[in-house]
């Protein structure tokens, strides 16, 4: 049986409420076309509530306990070192691995955090038009087959300008320059994706725009009137910057859709949205306030080394131009510069728990005997008591100002996984309540008042709800003209793509095909054994 081609188009971090405004107001006509000609499904977060894993979880079809990539910097198991996590480090491959193994040719371009796969049937363009930490943050690009790089650069008029920004724009002139840079990037990415659609062999295509993601992080305050950095007296064109980026992506998507085959099933997708940035991971401060994390006294050897490293790094940031720092860091892995800073002054002989990197959630790791180099918490009853104690303490936190609950959930990973925590995963994941106000202070009966610095330069941060809208043969039109609909899980996206192309779902994928898109398809056998193929080693080829 022949299956029509399938195209996924990423509108990364497009905020649901803002997109709804654009559809209702007529200034996002391409999204409006998807909504009126197809069906919309909202995407709820993964069961672990590790919201910052949205892209990795969606593309692998597995939760963080399975793919094991929580952040772009993670604890190296068996050490107290924080190391960079390259693309391809996850334990599960993206779902197009299974398409390739089934003989379905695919073209993959600029998908956040995607791994470079070996022996892949199709085309891979990674780190191009992307600012994700695993690839584009420091300019790395992988193109397979490599001989495509020359014509792709010519077709796009050069590589899209979307890349990591060392310092967030703040002045009107800086914000305007950054917005214009993003608008140029959208156009170049459109040319990239159109060239790949026209010149590569594919039955599955996944190309993504990352500009709304970066604009949301750095320009959110221009849009959000309630943001503390919002300037109501700024010019209208400046306050319109975020919407200008959305409109540009929408226009480019419209031209791309016109180039697709008539029988193509086309999907617009983002695994998460965007909103105001309200939390700058306070877990370390909370753990220290409660005595679970102990630091060495002033003047102690490792502490002195940590302070010296920190001072040197701060001075370098002030004195060395941004472009020089980035060039140096491209040649010198971040773990060699920063691994000694995070825990340099921790007294491991008295520390029972510590925080590891996360983003808009907090990850707490127990200093467990037998697992950590200097673990002091014994497995079993001591471990259970400590995690219960930590869970109660975090759930008891209130905002220093309003007194509202600051934490919505404290997830014990051993209970979530049904096994001891392994790899770099946290023992406790703290999900901060989206209160709509920045968390600058916390208080509780147990800890008293805890003052928190807010150093994160991003004015926008991700919201949990994403969406997928599909149109084409076999996808019935919705009776609603609003960007709304039934709810599915992020882990259901991968099985949906496989089902649409007639490829059996491996037993390792817990999700199910989304009925709104697959209810007219013939049933396929699900749960076949995983072929065990893993992503190839990430790197420039």
Core attributes:
541 residues; 4-stranded antiparallel sheet; alpha/beta; 34% helix; 9-stranded mixed sheet; disordered C terminus; 18 helices; globular; single chain
General description of the model:
The protein has helices at residues 16-25, 29-37, 54-60, 64-67, 96-101, 149-156, 172-199, 211-223, 236-239, 241-259, 283-289, 301-319, 322-331, 334-342, 381-395, 413-417, 493-500, 515-518; strands spanning 6-11, 39-44, 73-75, 82-84, 106-109, 122-126, 142-144, 204-209, 265-270, 275-276, 353-356, 362-366, 398-399, 407-412, 428-432, 441-444, 448-451, 460-461, 466-471, 487-489, 505-506, 526-528. It has 541 residues and is an alpha/beta fold. The strands form six sheets. A nine-stranded mixed sheet has the order 7-6-5-8-1-9-19-2-20, with helices on both faces. The protein has a four-stranded antiparallel sheet with strand order 11-12-15-14. The protein is globular, with a radius of gyration of 23 Å. 48% of the residues are buried. Mean pLDDT is 87; it is low at 310-337 and 524-541.
């Amino acid at each position: 049986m022949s299956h029509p081609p399938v195209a996924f188009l990423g509108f990364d971090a497009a905020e649901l409420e803002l997109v709804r405004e654009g559809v209702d107001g007529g200034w996002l006509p391409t999204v409006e076309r998807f909504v009126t000609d197809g069906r919309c499904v909202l995407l709820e977060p993964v069961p672990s509530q590790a919201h910052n894993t949205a892209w990795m979880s969606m593309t692998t079809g597995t939760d963080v306990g399975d793919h094991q990539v929580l952040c772009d910097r993670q604890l190296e198991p068996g050490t107290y070192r924080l190391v960079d996590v390259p693309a391809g480090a996850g334990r599960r491959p993206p779902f197009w691995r299974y398409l390739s193994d089934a003989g379905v040719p695919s073209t993959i371009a600029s998908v956040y955090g995607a791994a470079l796969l070996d022996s892949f049937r199709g085309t891979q363009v990674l780190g191009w038009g992307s600012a994700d930490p695993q690839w584009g943050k420091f300019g790395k690009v992988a193109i397979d087959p490599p001989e495509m790089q020359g014509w792709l650069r010519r077709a796009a008029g050069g590589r899209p300008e979307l890349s990591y920004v060392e310092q967030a724009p703040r002045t009107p002139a800086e914000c305007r320059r950054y917005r214009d840079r993003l608008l140029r990037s959208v156009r170049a990415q459109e040319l990239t994706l159109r060239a790949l659609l026209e010149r590569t062999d594919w039955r599955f295509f996944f190309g993504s725009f990352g500009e709304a993601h970066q604009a949301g992080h750095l320009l959110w305050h221009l849009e959000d009137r309630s943001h503390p950095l919002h300037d109501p007296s700024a010019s209208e064109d400046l306050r319109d910057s975020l919407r200008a980026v959305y409109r540009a992506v929408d226009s480019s998507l419209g031209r791309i859709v016109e180039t697709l085959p008539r029988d193509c099933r086309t999907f617009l997708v983002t695994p998460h949205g965007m909103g105001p940035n309200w939390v700058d991971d306070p877990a370390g401060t909370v753990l220290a306030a409660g005595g679970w994390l102990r630091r060495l006294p002033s003047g102690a050897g490792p502490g002195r080394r940590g302070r010296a490293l920190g001072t040197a790094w701060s001075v370098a940031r002030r004195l060395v131009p941004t472009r020089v720092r980035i060039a140096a860091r491209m040649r010198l892995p971040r773990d060699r510069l920063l691994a000694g800073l995070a825990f340099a002054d921790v007294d491991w002989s008295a520390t029972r728990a510590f925080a590891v990197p996360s983003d808009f959630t907090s990850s707490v790791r127990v200093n467990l005997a037998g697992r950590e180099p200097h673990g002091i918490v014994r497995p079993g009853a001591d471990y259970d008591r400590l995690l219960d104690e930590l869970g109660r303490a975090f759930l008891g936190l209130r905002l220093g100002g309003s007194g509202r609950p600051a934490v919505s959930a404290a997830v014990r990973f051993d209970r979530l996984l049904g096994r001891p925590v392994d790899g770099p995963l946290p023992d406790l994941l703290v999900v901060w309540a989206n209160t709509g106000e920045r968390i600058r202070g916390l208080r509780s009966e147990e800890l008293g008042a805890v003052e928190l610095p807010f150093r994160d330069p991003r004015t926008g941060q991700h919201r949990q709800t994403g969406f997928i809208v599909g149109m084409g043969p076999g996808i019935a039109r919705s009776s609603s003209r609003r960007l709304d609909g039934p709810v599915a899980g992020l882990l259901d996206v991968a099985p949906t793509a496989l089902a649409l192309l007639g490829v059996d779902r491996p037993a390792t994928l817990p999700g199910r095909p989304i009925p709104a898109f697959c209810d007219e398809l013939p049933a396929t056998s699900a749960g076949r054994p995983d072929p065990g193929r893993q992503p190839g080693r990430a790197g420039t080829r």
